[in-house]
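Hi W.,

Here's what went into the run:
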Amino acid sequence: MHEHIAAVPLDKAYRLLNHGPTILVSSRHAGVQNVMAAAWACALDFDPPKLTVVLDKNVKTRALVENSGVFVIQVPTVAQIRLTSLVGSVSLVDDPHKLEHCAVQLFEMPGHDLPFVEGCSAWLACKLIPEPHNQQTYDLFIGEVVGAWADTRVFSEGHWHFETADPTLRSLHYIAGGHYYAIGQALDVDESNL
Amino acid sequence: MHEHIAAVPLDKAYRLLNHGPTILVSSRHAGVQNVMAAAWACALDFDPPKLTVVLDKNVKTRALVENSGVFVIQVPTVAQIRLTSLVGSVSLVDDPHKLEHCAVQLFEMPGHDLPFVEGCSAWLACKLIPEPHNQQTYDLFIGEVVGAWADTRVFSEGHWHFETADPTLRSLHYIAGGHYYAIGQALDVDESNL
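Here's what came out:
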């Protein structure tokens, strides 16, 4: 495993998505692999951790996920903003060399036959929970998180440390038309004293 | 309507949630109204706009939404961090005067029999699309957005303006244990020149 990557306990995995970052979906089937960007992914449950992600009928990733039954949701960083926009704009349908042209580097995690994107801050390996009605009617896919990892320079001991980490490790939050926000200032409420 | 509140065209409504803010859900049925906080809400479609929200079986809001078939998703601000934590911690089941004790002020929007929370930056009036299997199995509710509004001091002409608005109008992004992040710096990619 990479030097800065550490496993995240599954009961803390929801925290990797709780703040609503734009994510990358990666998948592989029968020798074809792809990476796409998506703003519409969301935690769904704590234990076992589950999440939802919207995969439009015109994206190549959808068939890869349906056919392999597995996928990775990962959290790209400010340093990856151009890569994120690129994989969200270029389709593997139009460009069979998309990943190369988008400068996406992939790596493997032991025990998971899945393509993981280098340079992200967090990775969630997911097993598709087939729900044909949701998939067909709403393009809505549900995954159970079966493995989670984070870059310890920005997430450790169950918490993000955006406030002290290098700003290029912050998460991206997409609006539209090439316009993003980075995650910002930390704010705390003493919940024992409300 | 309030001075700073303007309607958002429905085809731009997804942008109010696209950056993954923590939201407040409000609802009303048979004279009972409630407001709760949730991190697990997400855009689902553009046109007509739809969204998902997770409503646990132990929250009072769930019955109000199921019985009335309508609800509001609204985006609280940094100025409302304590209110957000409070309505996420106190249950109407335990405290019938929850809204008063949480200092929640509600207002009405013409044409919508729904309670809207004062001081938020955006509001999405939703009609429940009943999906009993999702609701029962995953606590997952789907709504069609039938009305959208935003505070023009921070969202106008289809775009958030966090970078120029008062910082207290920024969105909140919850992690866990009273720890939030505000939305941060604006970042742009020229998508015509990737």
